[in-house]
Amino acid sequence: MGGTFDPIHHGHLVAASEAAANLGLDEVVFVPTGRPGFKQHANVTPAEHRYLMTVIATASNPRFTVSRVDVDRPGLTYTVDTLRDLHAQRPEADLFFITGADAIQQILTWKDSDRLWDMAHFVAVTRPGHRLTVDGLPQGGVTTLEVPALAISSTDCRRRAGAGLPVWYLVPDGVVQYIAKHGLYRGLHDE
Ligand code: ATP
Ligand code: MG
């Protein structure tokens, strides 16, 4: 499951857990982006903070792991590179790429999108506020999955933290504390 995870929240965790249960996955690898190509405009938190929050949020689940492939690769992050690196590390694994309804819509605009279909199965999960359609995507290329609706976004969590409003119960407790400890999103007016 790729994402900016700025910060990781319970919507991400429920989506990952549901995909794992429904598709019988052995492991969910969370892959925080390095520099996301499509978010160059925004004020993205340094990758090391986003990576550590993802580690904190997933630590208690034995099936959840976090990969540094995108954080450690110089330059912009492209999913084609993510999948190539994950395949190199786990040559035996059957890869599934989990995305939300909003992200799957962007897939055709991703770098080398025609090659992605051979590199992984794509799983699109429902997300409040976004219609889940796979129009224009290869037939059979994308599995759609309805997951319990959690109307949580990282954008809203950043706004709340920036405005001094609570993010308790939207993100895991350890992430609330990490945000406070490092003063993340303080005085944020980016969106
Ligand atoms: P931002 O508001 O900064 O874009 P976000 O909440 O969309 O953050 P991302 O890191 O962009 O989080 O998302 C990573 C992946 O998780 C994407 O595929 C996205 O569609 C999916 N996702 C995010 N939030 C949810 C949610 N509440 N339910 C289901 N999927 C989600
Ligand atoms: Mg997003």
UniProtKB/TrEMBL annotation:
Which transformation does this protein catalyse, written as a reaction? nicotinate beta-D-ribonucleotide + ATP + H(+) = deamido-NAD(+) + diphosphate
The protein's UniProt keywords, in alphabetical order, are: ATP-binding, NAD, Nucleotide-binding, Nucleotidyltransferase, Pyridine nucleotide biosynthesis, Transferase
EC numbers on record: 2.7.7.18
Which example biological process does GO assign this protein? NAD+ biosynthetic process
Gene3D superfamilies, per the entry: HUPs
Q: Which InterPro entries does the UniProt entry name for this protein?
A: Cyt_trans-like (IPR004821), NadD/NMNAT (IPR005248), Rossmann-like_a/b/a_fold (IPR014729)
Which molecular-function annotations from GO does this UniProt entry contain? Answer: ATP binding; nicotinate-nucleotide adenylyltransferase activity
State the SUPFAM superfamilies in the record.
Answer: Nucleotidylyl transferase
Pathway per the UniProt entry: Cofactor biosynthesis; NAD(+) biosynthesis; deamido-NAD(+) from nicotinate D-ribonucleotide: step 1/1
Coiled-coil intervals: none
Report domain Cytidyltransferase-like positions: 1-160
HAMAP family the UniProt entry points to? NaMN_adenylyltr
Instruction: Please give the PANTHER family that the UniProt record associates with this protein.
Output: NICOTINATE-NUCLEOTIDE ADENYLYLTRANSFERASE-RELATED, PHOSPHOPANTETHEINE ADENYLYLTRANSFERASE
Would you identify the family this protein belongs to, as annotated? Belongs to the NadD family.
Q: What does this protein do?
A: Catalyzes the reversible adenylation of nicotinate mononucleotide (NaMN) to nicotinic acid adenine dinucleotide (NaAD).
Q: What's the protein called, per UniProt? A: Probable nicotinate-nucleotide adenylyltransferase
**Naturally occurring in which organism (per UniProt):** Antribacter soli
